[in-house]
Amino acid sequence: MTLGSMLRVVVHGKLASWEEYLPLVEFAYNSVIHRTIGMTPFEVVYGFNPLTPLDLTSLSQGVVLRLDGTKRSEAMKKLHKKVRLHLEKKNQEVAKKANKGRKRVKLEPGDWVWVHFCKERFPTHRKIKLMPRGDGPFQVHERLNNNAYKIDLPPEYQVHNTFNVCDLSLFLTINDDDMSNFRTNSFQETENDAIQIPSRPFTRIQARDLQNMQGLFMKLEILGMMLIENKGYVLRNGGVLALLVRQGQSADRPRA
Predict the structure, then answer these.
(1) What distances in angstroms separate CA 209 from CA 42, 70, 213, 239, one per listed residue?
(2) Could you tell me the residue range of the domain that residue 241 belongs to?
(3) What range(s) does the Tf2-1-like SH3-like domain occupy (predicted)?
(4) Pick from 35, 39, 122, 209: CA 20 to 30 A from residue 225's CA?
(5) 169-194 in b/e burial notation, b at 16+ Cβ within 10 A?
């Protein structure tokens, strides 16, 4: 429990009187053993734990209280060394738990990345909920360490160009061979996309829907050819939708 949480419980809605309770809450906070350091903050700073009002025994004559300045200094050094080792152990445990399942990202100068717009750093770019959450790609200028990178950011953003790795996403480029499989529309010169027929057994209704879908694709292909050859006819006779309806009716009408 943090100091703010303890103070919130003690105040219990009386916000104007929080200063009166602060010394008591601070004393209680510093007198409790913390799991991170393995002892109380009082003991870390002063070398002993203070007495509380609940202590009815006489003042304990501890070893630390009877030592002179030199020996007391050596005892405090040993105590701080013990606390430091305990802190390092706890930090390793917390880091191991926090990094479980995470993938370490390592960027190099020259890589292209996307920059995430956090609200604290880019308030003007996050004013509206539907505004873009990032921008890029921008090139990595310098690698400071495993967590910080300098980015070639345009000057109009008016922010420092050093970013944490959690605010960067690697920009993945696509080779020319991979781009040959992408088409913006079905009229580009390349092979037609095959209809994916499921390998599992399907019902009669699903078979009928698949057959209707194949017929619709054929009509759309014919429509595309007619759009290319008869643009003026399409515009004079009700547009593309009317042409599609006429084409579908003529294809579905039984022949004599």
Answers:
(1) 76, 91, 6, 27
(2) 204-252
(3) 110-169
(4) 209
(5) eeeeeeeeeeeeeeeeeeeeeeeeee
